[in-house]
Amino acid sequence: MPDSASSRPGMPHLKHVGGMTLGIMQPYFLPYIGYFQLIAAVDEFIVYDNIKYTKKGWINRNRLLSNGEAATFSLPLRKDSDALDIVHRELSESFDRKKLLNQFIGAYGKAPYFQETIALIQDILFYDSSNLFYFLKNSITAVCKHIGIPTRIHDSSALPIDHELKSQDKVLAMCKATHATTYINPIGGVELYSRDAFEARGIQLKFIQSELHPYPQNHHDFVPWLSIVDVLMFNPVQDVSAMLKYHRLS
Questions:
Q1: 120/228 Cα distance (integer angstroms)
Q2: Among 54, 156, 164, 182, which residue has the fewest nearby CB atoms (within 10 Å)?
Q3: How far is Cα of residue 46 from the mean position of the Cα atoms in its chain?
Q4: Cα–Cα dist 243/214, whole Å
Q5: Angle, CA of 150, 143 and 41, to the nearest 5°
Q6: For residue range 104-141, what is the model confidence (pLDDT) as tens digits?
């Protein structure tokens, strides 16, 4: 059964030899491999549940390969207030899980690793929850288990911090609450954070930049940065696990 606000466990106090490395992101639906490279690069990963849903982003949609071109797939949402946090948004009653599964089947039916990957996708799509956050979190943890990422994943609301804090101040509070000694952020946020501010609190700030080596996509020209589903359809799991190290830290 999915988590609920009333049963959500607190953030565990964990000790990591040599310090603890933390990553924080909002949830996305079957995101690109760079998302999982970040999770694999840290000891603990915080996924935002108490952050507002943003339209036209990647929270409930991504891209797959269809006839050699990128095509969008998405989760339909119940109409509701734009002011609600992700954890308070719901999937639409009209969400046809079998139809979305068939979209993946039509796109990847001839892919070399179709059978094992479509089984994973089916389990994800038929997860018994209509809550957007828990549906997304389950998809993330299911992929992590499938490709062998052991990182512990926690909900942001479980942390004992002032959740009214914003941006860098909130990240610093999360680092303090989890006793993180290193914080890793995607390279796109390099302008958002100050190394001096982190160092003043005894925290090393690093940025991760993903690298993707082209792989065969059924004789089509390579289309990069699609959903992790594409990577799994065309590569054995052991190769995908190796791809998690295709990144640079700065």
A1: 12
A2: 164
A3: 10
A4: 11
A5: 40
A6: 999 999 999 999 999 999 999 999 999 999 999 999 99
- The answer, yes or no, to whether residue 60 has pLDDT greater than 60, is yes
**What element of type H or E holds 174?**
helix 167-178
Distance CA 127, CA 133 (A): 12
Task: Count Cβ atoms within 10 A of the Cβ of residue 1 and give its class: 0-12 exposed, 13-18 middle, 19 or more buried.
Answer: exposed
Q: pLDDT-based confidence at 56, cuts 50/70/90? A: confident
